[in-house]
Every structure is written in structure tokens, then in C-alpha cells.
Amino acid sequence: MSRLIVISNRVSAVRGELSAAQGGLSVALTAALRESGGLWFGWSGELTEEFTGQINFSRNAGVTTATVDLEEQDVDEYYNGYANRTLWPLFHYRIDLAQYERDFAGGYQRANERFADTVLPLIEPEDAVWVQDYHMIPLGAELRKRGLRNRIGFFLHIPWPPRRLLNTLPEARELVETMFAYDLVGFHTEEWLHSFCDFATAEFGATVEDGLMRVNGHQVRLLACPIGIDAKEFAELSAGATAAEHCRVMQESANGRAMIVGVDRLDYSKGLEERFAGYERYLVDNPEERKGVFLLQIAPPSREAVETYQRIRAVLEGMSGRINGEHADVDWVPIRYVNRNYPRDVLAGIYRAAKIGLVTPLRDGMNLVAKEFVAAQNPEDPGVLVLSRFAGAAAQLTEALLVNPYSAEELSDAIKTASCMPREERIRRWKHMFDNVQREDVRWWRKRFTDALMSVPCRPGARQSG
Ligand code: GDG
Question: Mean pLDDT throughout 160-184?
């Protein structure tokens, strides 16, 4: 078996608690690498005065991690700049929030060149390389420029935007062209894959047949491969003592009321503002029932250096304060809004205590919270998942109550439907979703992608894996 070299912006701790700021990608890759062994390369998250390319190695649970420190200017332009001020909003269809600056584009390119220079000597002839996400789109092309002939795959964890939106990015064509250096490109859903094909076809005259794109003399295999959670680990967490204790504490504190839960990184793509508006609509439309529910929204801050994130935080603080001020009673508060990060086993207990899970992003590559909510439910008395149609997860979790997150009325109706759904229907819907969450878990995802990568014929001059 050849080794797998995973390359991503951040390399998370293989052991220990993952912070929410590291997001779903880290949760998924930690589980995947634990199984396969190999090497995980990326930015340490630390700064250095001057970039030297010095690598810090460490080894945990069968996984070697190799990290480099970056200069402050790299972090400003590459990470806080191009990745999170340009690509993240654009790829989530928010061109109103996207900032297009040449310094950001330059910093992004420079950081990717630095990553390529540093990781290249670590790659052995038989290794397969798997590059992750929007921070590293040009990395494959940079590795090819340096002569690497190994199999290289790329997986995008966020949506791929429609062509007309992507064309607002000044260097859209150059960026997309670098994708053609990969042997395999994966997306969570057919929808994101089709958008990518649409751009490549319209702008470069690409042809696509049976999952193979031919473009500019390159052949790129394409795969829609939805990421899953570590369902086994999550089921064990949910059955554990800490989860049980927190489930009990939450049930006691709910005091007979139905808890609605939301758990999201504090990010404008997660639709929190619209969720609060939809929930308020429910309160207004249902004066008799409203005191029978409350919303617990857990939203740990993320990317705090970026202004749009500071703004969404301020907006939500204002909204939760206003809604509570306007609707609360002496014995009831409608929203418990918490900007804290909780351990995963505590989250599992909270999910299980909830009657309704609200997962309503405006746009999301996949959304792992939806799957965690399903995995944590009590099979005898499961809660109801209300899920945005615009999350990648909606293509698999078709038995959720699917909503348009922009519509406060639809959200309000879904809360009402969920809160009076009979137990048999809840069980039927949950079983269907749980089956998918278990079957198409993170191991399935990793295997599907790496199997597809290993089945790519070796390039001339590359060494065959044993
Ligand atoms: C990106 C894509 C795609 C949240 N709060 C806490 C906490 N979390 C964990 C959740 C979940 C993860 O963070 C969030 O994952 P998502 O998938 O929901 O979203 P992103 O972070 O935006 O991830 C997304 C994903 O990559 C994988 O491809 O699904 O579409 O945007 O695991 O549980 N974890 C802890 N405490 C918290 O308070 N421990």
C-alpha cells in the first residue's frame, strides 16, 4: 500500500479535543488518517519572523504530522485575505461580501508556492497526495511545476459557485486552470460538480464524459463524494456517561419544554440571522404554543480577525437580545444564545436532549452538524431534523424537513410541523437518515476518494505503488 499524504491548511491534533474553529474538515480527516496512517502536512497556525521552511514533525496514533510556520504577511494575505475574505464568501454565493484585492491573490499564490517547496522533499515516489480545500487550490499545479509525477487528488469541502458568480473574481480563469493539474477532483455533491464542469466547459472548452474531463491536454477525473461523520465514534460518544449526564441536565433545564437546538461556527453562511428571524416568526404566529419551546443556539466564534465575522457576531447579539426582550416572560426566555465551544461528548448529549435540530445554512458544502444530530438521537424517541435545502447534506438526508432558509415563514412552519410530529413518523424519518449516516460515513468517504485516486493510471515516469 502506498502512503497517503494529506495536505490541508491546518493540521489538527490527532489526539485531544478539536476546537470548533478547526471545523468539520479536521473532524473528518483525523478519523480518516487514524485508520490509514500516513503523513499530514499543513500550516502550524503559528507565525514566524521570516519563513524558513523549517518543518516541525510530530507523531500521534499512527499519524505523522508535518507543519510549517508562516509569516504574518502570509497569514494576512493568504489566510485572512484570499481564503477567508475572497474565496469563502464567493464560493458561498456572497459576492456582496467578497473582497477582490491583488495583494490577497499574490499572498495566496506565495503561500501555496511555499507549501509546495516545503512538502515536496517529504513525498516519496509511491505516495498518493491528497490536497484539501479552497486554501490550496493551486498547490497541485505548483507541485507539478516542481516535477512531481505522483497521483494528486483534490477535494473541495465548500460549494462550487455558479459560473456567472465565479466570473466576478478577477483571476477566476487562472485559478480554475490550476485545477487541471490534479488527477482527481472531488466535490460533496453533483450540484457543485456540475457548476465546476459548467465553468470549465464554457471558459476552456472542456469535454466531460463518464466522469472524465478532458481539457487543455489534461485528463481530470471527477467525483461527487459526500463526506460523512465518524458515525461509530459519535454513537459511542452519545451512549457514554458524559453525554448521558448532559442530556439529563438539559432535559431538566428544559422543564417540560421542547428544546430546539442549533450548533454552528459563527459564520454568515450558516444562516443564523435568518434562523433567528424564522424562529421569531414562529413565536409571533403561534402565541398559544410558543412558551412550550425554546431555542438553544450554540455558536462558537470563528475567524475573528475578519470584519464580516465581527459584524455577524454583533448582529446576532442584537437580534437575540431584542427577541428575548420583546417575547420573554418572567418564567421563560425564548433564545439561549451561547458563544462557547463545547467538547464533542457534551454536544452529543445536547443533541440527544433536543426535540428539533435546526440546521439551516444559506449555502453549505455538506454540513456535518446535521449528521451528528441524527447520529445522537434516541432511536425510541428521536428528534426531528429541520434542514436547509441549500446544504449538501440535503441530497442524502431527504427525510429531514427540508426548508428554504431565506423564508421565515417556511422556517416557522417547519418548527410547527416538527413540534407536533407523531412518534411513528419521527422514527420512520430518523431510521432512513440514520441508515445513510451510518452507511456513508467518513471511512466510506475516504475510501471512495482514495480508491478513485489509486485507480488513476500512473503518469509516465512515476513509480507504481506496490
Ligand atoms: C466545512 C464546510 C463541510 C461546532 N461547534 C462546536 C463543534 N462544532 C463542530 C461540529 C462539526 C463541525 O464543528 C462543523 O462542521 P460543518 O460541516 O457543520 O461546517 P464547517 O466548519 O463550515 O465545515 C462544511 C465540512 O467542511 C466538511 O467537509 O461539511 O460544509 O463548510 O463537526 O460538531 N465542536 C465542538 N464544540 C463546539 O462547540 N467540539
Answer: 98
pLDDT of residue 32: 65
- Given 135, 157, 188, 327, which residue is catalytic? 157
Please tell me if the domain spanning 4-228+443-454 has the same topology as the one spanning 231-439: yes
CA nearest to 203, candidates 252, 169, 245? 169
The domain ranges of the chain are 4-228+443-454, 231-439
pLDDT band for 466, please (50, 70, 90 cuts): very low
Which of the listed residues 238, 296, 367 should we mutate to test ligand 1's pocket, taking the one with most ligand atoms within 8 A of CB? Answer: 367
Instruction: Decide if 364 is catalytic.
Output: yes
pLDDT of residue 27: 60
Integer Cα distance of 140 and 148 in angstroms: 9
Q: Which three-class secondary structure state does DSSP give residue 391?
A: strand
Give ligand 1 pocket residues (Cβ under 6 A).
Answer: 18, 20, 23-25, 27-28, 157-158, 227, 263, 265, 298, 300, 341-344, 347, 364-369, 372
What is the pLDDT averaged over residues 364-370?
Answer: 96
What's residue 13's pLDDT?
57
CATH homologous superfamily for the domain 4-228+443-454: Glycogen Phosphorylase B; (3.40.50.2000)
Nearest CA to ligand 1 atom 23: 24
| Choice between 222 and 446, residue whose per-residue pLDDT is larger | 222
What is the DSSP secondary-structure string of 119-185? HGGG--TT-EEEEESGGGTTHHHHHHHTT--S-EEEE--SPPPPHHHHTTSTTHHHHHHHGGG-SEE
Identify the architecture of domain 231-439 in CATH.
3-Layer(aba) Sandwich (3.40)
The confidence band for 15, taking pLDDT boundaries of 50, 70 and 90, is very low
Q: Is 435 a catalytic residue?
A: no
The residue whose CA is least distant from atom 12 of ligand 1 is 24
Query: Whose C-alpha lies nearest to ligand 1, atom 32?
Result: 24
Place of cell 446535521: 370
3 state DSSP class of 15: coil
Asked whether 331 and 289 are in contact (CB, 8 A), the reply is no
Work out whether the CA dihedral 96, 97, 98, 104 comes out positive or negative: positive
For residues 243-258, give the mean pLDDT. 93
- pLDDT value for 235: 85
